[in-house]
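User: Before I run my own analysis I want an independent prediction to cross-check against. Here's the chain; please return only the structure tokens and, at the end, one sentence I can use as a sanity check.
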Amino acid sequence: MPIASPRLAGALAASGALLALLGCGGGDDRPPVGTTQLSPATPASFQGACKDLAAKLASLANTTISTSTDVGAGALTVGGQAVPAHCQVTGAMFARTSTVDGNSYAIKFEMRLPLAWNGRFFHQGNGGIDGSVVPATGSFGGGPLTHALMQGFAVLSSDAGHAASLGPNFGVDPQARLDYGYQAVGKLTPIAKKVIDSAYGKGPDRSYFGGCSNGGRHTFVAAARYPEDYDGYLAGAPGYKLPKAAIANMFGARRYASVATNPADLSTGFTPTERATVARAVLARCDVLDGASDGLVQDTEACRVAFDLARDVPTCGGSRDGSCLSPAQKTAIAPIFSGAINSKGESFYSSFPYDSGIGAAGIAFWEFTAPLALDSGAVGIIFKVPPENPASFNGPAFALTADIDAMLAGIEATNAVYTESAMSFMTPPNPTRLEKLKNRGAKMMVFHGVSDPIFSVDDTKAWYEGLAAANGGDASSFARFYRVPGMGHCSGGPATDQFDMLSALVAWVEKGAAPDRVTASARGAGNAGGVNAELPADWAANRSRPLCPYPKVARYNASGSLDSADSFSCR
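Assistant: Structure tokens:
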């Protein structure tokens, strides 16, 4: 709930009826349920001195504010631009010593509060298994030229309730599991709004939640569990079935291991040269399906029909030389793309589309390293009930030899100590039932790279189709989904991966300007937000494309530059 301004507290207390009408004040003049348009946020300036804010917040329940420090203009830069002056607040909530593993825990956080505030709050969902309070800038997209802090938002970042030094071992503590999954968000939100109220004399008029990867999962969970706390949700690569996606990635690791020429290196099962060969074969079949031969597969659905791994990639007649795949490789790799299965042949995670980004360098980490170094610990210690013993746990061995059916049972299990399963605390309850979000005028935008190798864009597509079905066949009045051709996990790949969806989301929430397309650019030579080394040499450094709301596809208009978004329409 929004927090009442101290300056309004007396007036509101004088009238119970007015208090009921306004909710909790703080400038949050949300319309009644059933309306679809929220009013714009109103800017405000920081009140008092930043150094005095910590003392003003000393009475926050279950919370200790450690510091409030001025950060001068230009101390941070984004895309070569100086971030405006702001106040940095650090603190921790619910400090405790675990009775299960004896470790110390707390939900640590920081907030960055612009001196010139736009009236908005952005809750930054972070990636991986959290554990670190990364700078609260509210970044989004690949190599952005702007972010929420730059735009004047008050931004919150947290470690989700555990320290990075523990690695996945925090999963031994049942409360740390729940905080990581969803409870840290529920605890932080009201405190963050109180901090904002103390800093500006009013709470946020509009609140937004966003992040990519696990941050996208956090966003999906927040939309389902906390639909009344935020007005806009921006989710990138939302691994909202993260426990199953992690097991699917270990399923894939076993397939690669079966054809690896070096058992200690999974990448020898599908080398960079071989992946580039497959990427060329995909483009040969699918590039022109959107009307332009431009190194991008816009029509993903048509490509499913047009491309066949067995037929369209040359089969090695002799030794592997990079120009072909052996029969054993094709047999091993095809099930990764068709979707992971259990011992009964039943699918437990989504398919992955073939796309031009399969040859990108970033794919290797997620396909060959992450299953052994990340997914194994997450499944074995954070998600499984009971967890594996950290003292004897061997991640690579677990990834390559542990029974997958047992893993799937473990992420659904509970016991007296771990009373919520991973599929409860890590995933959004009823993810396609977002009536509360819809009815109060909130909006949701979701983007996902088509070449994402860890969280499948097909899984997000299935979610969106389910959301549409739950809303009479069309959810576009409050939620839109954008596929990013060629892009890997959150960024990178042969893609136009630089875009500002936050501004588009704000315009939709506060002005009713539906985002019919979002312009994305490549990050070629000279890009201030960081150069993407995986761009093809024949692309213009600033190539642009429209990102289209599903199921529309960016199609060439039959004339105009292939490097300009103006030459393409969403159809």
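Sanity check: Residues 1-34 have pLDDT under 50 and may be disordered.
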